[in-house]
Task: structure prediction
Amino acid sequence: MKNMMKIGLAVAISLTSMLVMALPSAYVEGEHYKANLQRIAVSNEQVEVVELFMYTCPHCYHLEPEVEDWQASVSDKVRFVQVPAVFSPKQVPLASAFYAAEALGHLEKLHPLFFEAIHEEGMKLERKEQILDYVARQGVDRASFEQMMKSFAVKTKVKKATAITKMSGISGVPAFVVNGQYNTSGPMAGSIEALFDVVDFLVNQSSH
Result:
């Protein structure tokens, strides 16, 4: 009987050791993620995850399928938002196009098309006129889109995107900001797969 108990205890210890080894090690602030320069205000109802991206960034383009897969896997306690990063006035036209498309109900159609036009077709969509010509070729009313790009609502959202970019302290994209407090990226996490593990880790930390 005592031998059976010893064997059972040994098996239990062995399984526990295997489980501990299987668990991911804790991610370290300053190595896998870092605190934002300034805390960004978020809703208290959900944990907010923001992806800061740019249409001109090839890494952001290639990450889109992984972003969609990750978004489909998260619970309704997480609010995911894509925000066009604005480091300088050069990024304002495409950021304005993103929010204009969103306001007019064309984002689902135009979001992937902007990426494809730049990275697959080699198009330059740097200036407002280039963007307006392009959306018109996609069947979107040019005048309405131009009016929306110039609207107060879109300008306000671009200013907010600029503030988020600055307050996060990121130096490149794609980057993820979790709950307005921390940010991480592929280089910090070590790989694309690890990137989403770090984001999940930060989401869990923020949920407690």
